[in-house]
Every structure is written in C-alpha cells, then in structure tokens.
Amino acid sequence: MTKPSLDIRIARALDLVGDQGVPQDGSGLPVRNAPSPLKVFVPFIRARGERRQRRLSETTSDAAIDSAQVIRLSTDGRWHDSGLQLRVGDKVRYSASGRLFLSRPLEVSIGARTCVWYRIGDDPIARLPCEDGVITASRPGPLRLQAALPGAFGSPSGETSTESPPPPMSGEVLVKLAMTDAADAPAAAAPDGWRYLWRIGEAAIFRTCDEGTSLCCDTHGDVGILQYPVDRPLTDGLKLSWDWLVDELPSRLPEHVQPTHDYLSIAVEFDNGLDLTYMWSCGLPADTIFQCPLPWWDRRETHWVLRTPADGLGQWISESRGIKEDYRRAIGGPLPIRIVAVWLIANSAFQSGQGRCRYRKIVLEDGAGRVRVGS
Questions:
Q1: What Rg do the C-alpha atoms of the chain give, in angstroms?
Q2: 48-57 vs 38-46: helix crossing angle, rounded to 10
Q3: How much is the pTM?
C-alpha cells in the first residue's frame, strides 16, 4: 500500500483532510492530484479577518414571538426538552439565533440555520432549515432540541455518531418557541421527486424555477444534499448528462481542505455506499480529483473538478460523463453494480459565503434506455 506523503500526513494531523481513498481491493491509491492542503491553510488563516467581518455583518433573527419560551442550546451533545407536548397537526413558531464555533481563533463557525435539530416524540430527527419558521407535528410527543453539526448523528433516531464523533465546539444557540395557528408553507419543501439527505438535514436551498424547467440553488451559510432515487445498472455505456449555470461560488479559496470545503456539485451514488461528485472550483484546476476532507465523508465521497470560473460564470454549460470510466479513475477497486441516486450538493456553511446556480436536463442514459432525473 502506498504511504501518504509527508504533507498529507501533516494535513491529517491538523484535521485539514481525512482518508485519501484507498480502493477496496487494496491495490494502491486512485488518482489524487490536488495541490498540497498546506498551501491553502496559510491563505485561510490570513482570511480570518474577512470571515469575522462577514459574521459580524450578518443580521441575526429578531423575530417577535408572543409568549415565547426560550431554549438555550450549548454544545453538550444532549437533547433538551422544550416543555411543549404536541398533538398531530400542532404548529410551533420558532426563531433561532447564535453560532457554534469550531475554532474562534481561526473564525470557523456555523450559524443557527445549520445547527439546530429537533425531534417530536419518536419521529426521525430533522434540522430547522432557516432561522425563522413553523414546525408542524406529524405525530404526538414532546418537542426536543439539540445543537449539533450536520452529520453529527449516527442514525435518524438521534444517537450521536460513533464512527465520526463531533469535534470539540464552543458557543450557543437561543431558540424561541411558541404555539401558533399560522398556516405558513414549509420553508424546506424539496422539489417533487427529490428529498433531502437526513444526515445533513432539510434546507431552504433548492427550488424549481424557470417555469419548472430548472432547479435553482441558493446557499448562504448553510448546507443541503438533495437526492433523487434511481435504479440503473452500471453498464459500460452509462452516461450522466446535464446542463448547469453557476452565477457565484461559495468559496474564494480552493475547496479540498475541511475549513474551505464550500462548493456546488452534482453527484452519483452507487450501491456500495460510495459517491462521485462533479463540482466547480474557485481555485483548483479542471480534472483535479480529491477525497472529501470531512470526517465520515472521507471514506465515501470523491470529488472531481470539472469547471472553474474561467469556463464562464453565468452561462449554461452542457456536460456528459461516462460513469464507469470515471469510477475506475477516481475511486478504483471493485466496481459497484448499480447507481441508486443522483445528488445535488450545496455547502456554504464553513465560510458563510454565497453560492448560486441552476441545473436542467439531468439524464442517465445507455443503450438500454434513458431516465430523466427530476421530472
């Protein structure tokens, strides 16, 4: 087995990257050609003043909620009882503010729209998709809350992950709650046929647009993975094709280390639990391939840079990728049998930047047929 280079070993010690993706048959490393993570770390440190200014300039929720209960959530990893016992159909208005800090000196933090989770009775956990909104109970039970990173839970029932335990954090989030009769529409309704990955939580990021012909993505200090289930054999000729238009990228630094890993992408999930995601990058060259730097994901997700701003922001670009060939080059090891989902990914949680893009004409096709994704 090839030993990781010295800079990768140092980057892993600094929690900048994770596992580098040894194929499942142990035959050696697949293609990994990103520049040294250490080259990004210094510019990231220098940009901490910019991140601090961005954080201080963000408006916090000041929604007035009559007769509100206030729940103070720390980073203790516990579920907190709100004191509200809900019946089916009950509605609770909420307003959340505050931040969790992964590093105060480096100005790495996430806001309330990304880190407040709730559970009603024995329902699966869910994340508040924005700072202000309404929860509707689908079953009876107590409303409980927890402040946690996306990906912190090991199952939909809310146990903390033992495979990738959350890192030490500081800070707190305040959540105001009050019963309401408001008929607010759900802020995080996924487009028809799509669903948000439970591990990351619901979000108010993706919506249909352009008279129903496109999916629009607008991310600002949050994260979401939208999934569309499919069932297609991984044949030699299978291709994924799509059009995308990127107006703005959420990172100003190369995205292959943990604290700068804000990006926009489209991904294919395989039946072996791995996924390959095609992305735009602000600073990595096209055809850069790297393992996801985040815990848990570093064992499952591989990134392939297809486009950079030099290809033209604000312009529709058409793509077509041979999935089996790309899998061999980027992931390696035994081939999966089937493709089980197509994903759209948007992350801007780490640096609180903004990303905006659109997708259309997403298709899986080989000689046996054609499947339109999302319609």
A1: 21
A2: 50
A3: 0.94
